[in-house]
């Protein structure tokens, strides 16, 4: 085969509030001119407030060097598809929340005569659902198999399937480059992952399903070299994309001690247990940590335990979050209302908790049963899903926040009003200004997030109330399991 092969790696956005507000509202029609202008203005704010970062998985793949292959990244949040150019292969990472648009894009590309390879979380968990939509499937973490795909592309021997038989060894040095990105599209290009895997087994999460329960570590020297190299290209904030950046205390202590001299500012995700480890918390603060997303979920141990989340006992949550904030680190506190065990007393408890801890950005979510998780399978078996369990696209995450299941102990007719009343009280302009003023750092970011949520939860209330109006009779769809 003669000539250089061109490969386009495509990021398809999920149907979420970050990428497109209120899917249900799109069906409403009859929008006023003023309302349309307002929503367009808010969509601009949404794109700015999402603090968009590049897709690390595609950065990793684009950094794989094979003689005779040129790779580029197309991020559909910002870029138009460059179909005027000839592509020998298009790779699409299929996120669970973006199955339908990914499949539609794959079909359109194949009609243009472009071969399509599908990979990513959804393909890894549900390969049989993806075969008809692609010429090639990549199943599992692609770090080690992508060079084989590209080599076969050059030799004209592409296979229908490539499967990672084992998790990649992250201690192997892998240079991740940024030259396939357009830096100006992003809040920062400084995205770094130090570990993969999760030691926990929360049934509403698929991280341990895809990446295993055992933490795999990159070598600290390699991470430090990445930080030093990235700083020469981009002076902006760093995102550490580990699902739990404090999961291995000894590793984290050593890593962030090494990063202190670089005087970076960084954000990440952690458990609230960090507040009980003063040495590590101090190291986070000294190394430049500005904010952490922590998963609180329910304030009831019974509710958390019902979903296999055991590592943040409710009695210790207040002091843990206070300790983190006292160290000068902002807290994005993520709650889930509607876990098994939750009652109608939970909204008041959440509001009191937010006030008592001073959480800088609260996120109060509904339980989203994601295909491929334990909770999805269990709710399907119990007949509590509101859509056919075979229709995975119906279970996308959307800021329409429509209910996707029936809570265990609260009728929908009571649950929806309780949730919408809570978000109306929590997410106000006054509260946004107050939280920004009291934030230990990053006050402009805290303000932008809170103001964004004032808008987004208003859309959520609109869609949920529309769903509530249709609850009479058999208008709410039910899982096919419930009919058996």
H/E series, N to C?
Answer: EHHEEHEHEHEEEHEHEHEHEHHEHEHHHH
Q: Mean pLDDT, nearest integer?
A: 89
Q: Strand order of the main beta sheet, please?
A: 2-1-3-4-5-6
Q: Helix amount, in percent?
A: 25-40%
Number of helices: 16
The dominant shape is globular
Strand content: 5-15%
Characterize the largest beta sheet: strand count, sense, and whether it forms a barrel: 6 strands, parallel
End-to-end distance: 55 Å
Query: Using DSSP, what is the number of strands?
Result: 14
Show unreliable segments: 17-31, 477-484
The radius of gyration over CA amounts to: 23 Å
Query: Could you say which structural class the secondary elements and strand pairing correspond to?
Result: alpha/beta
Q: Secondary structure elements and their pairing?
A:
Blueprint: E1 5-11, H1 33-49, H2 56-62, E2 69-75, E3 89-93, H3 99-111, E4 116-119, H4 121-125, E5 136-139, H5 146-155, E6 161-163, E7 190-192, E8 195-196, H6 207-211, E9 216-217, H7 220-233, E10 238-240, H8 249-259, E11 266-270, H9 278-286, E12 289-297, H10 301-306, H11 317-326, E13 330-337, H12 346-357, E14 361-366, H13 374-381, H14 412-426, H15 429-438, H16 443-469
Parallel strand pairs: 1-2, 1-3, 3-4, 4-5, 5-6, 7-10, 10-11, 11-12, 12-13, 13-14
Antiparallel strand pairs: 8-9
Helix pairs in contact: 1-16, 7-8, 8-9, 14-16, 15-16
């Amino acid at each position: 085969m003669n000539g250089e092969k061109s490969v386009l790696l495509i990021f398809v956005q999920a149907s979420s509030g970050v990428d497109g507000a209120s899917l249900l509202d799109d069906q409403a029609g009859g929008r006023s001119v003023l309302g349309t202008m307002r929503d367009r203005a808010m969509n601009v704010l949404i794109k700015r407030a999402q603090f968009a970062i590049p897709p690390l998985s595609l950065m990793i793949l684009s950094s794989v060097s094979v003689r005779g292959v040129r790779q580029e990244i197309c991020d559909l949040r910002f870029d138009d598809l460059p179909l005027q150019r000839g592509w020998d292969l298009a790779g699409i990472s299929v996120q669970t929340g973006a199955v339908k648009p990914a499949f539609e894009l794959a079909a359109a590309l194949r009609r243009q005569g472009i071969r399509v390879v599908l990979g990513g979380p959804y393909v890894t968990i549900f390969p049989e659902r993806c075969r008809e939509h692609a010429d090639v499937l990549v199943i599992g973490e692609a770090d080690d198999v992508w060079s084989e795909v590209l080599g076969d592309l050059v030799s004209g021997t592409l296979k229908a399937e490539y499967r990672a038989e084992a998790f990649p060894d992250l201690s192997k040095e892998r240079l991740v480059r940024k030259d396939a990105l357009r830096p100006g599209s992003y809040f920062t290009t400084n995205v770094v992952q130090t570990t993969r895997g999760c030691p926990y087994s929360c049934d509403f999460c698929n991280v341990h399903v895809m990446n295993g329960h055992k933490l795999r570590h990159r070598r600290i020297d390699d991470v430090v070299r990445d930080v030093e190299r990235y700083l020469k290209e981009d002076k902006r904030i760093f995102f550490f994309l580990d699902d739990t950046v404090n999961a291995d205390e000894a590793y984290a202590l050593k890593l962030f001690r090494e990063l202190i001299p670089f005087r970076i500012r960084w954000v990440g995700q952690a458990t609230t247990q960090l507040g009980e480890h003063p040495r590590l918390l101090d190291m986070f603060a000294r190394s430049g940590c500005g904010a952490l997303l922590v998963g609180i979920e329910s304030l009831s141990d019974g509710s958390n335990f019902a979903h296999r989340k055991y590592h943040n006992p409710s009695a210790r949550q207040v002091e843990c979050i206070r300790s983190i904030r006292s160290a000068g680190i902002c807290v994005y506190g993520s709650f889930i209302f509607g876990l098994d065990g939750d009652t109608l007393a939970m909204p008041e408890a959440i509001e009191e908790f937010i006030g008592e801890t001073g959480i800088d950005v609260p996120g109060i979510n509904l339980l989203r049963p994601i295909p491929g998780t334990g909770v999805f399978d269990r709710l399907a078996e119990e007949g509590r899903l509101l859509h056919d369990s075979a229709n995975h696209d119906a279970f996308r995450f959307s800021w329409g926040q429509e209910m996707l299941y029936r809570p265990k102990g609260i009728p929908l007719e009571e649950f929806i009003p309780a949730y919408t009343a809570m978000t109306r009280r929590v997410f106000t302009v006054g509260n946004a200004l107050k939280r920004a003023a009291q934030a230990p750092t990053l006050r402009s970011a805290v303000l932008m997030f809170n103001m964004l949520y004032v808008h987004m939860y208003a859309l959520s209330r609109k869609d949920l109330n529309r769903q509530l109006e249709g609850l009479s009779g058999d208008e709410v769809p039910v899982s096919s399991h419930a009919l058996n």
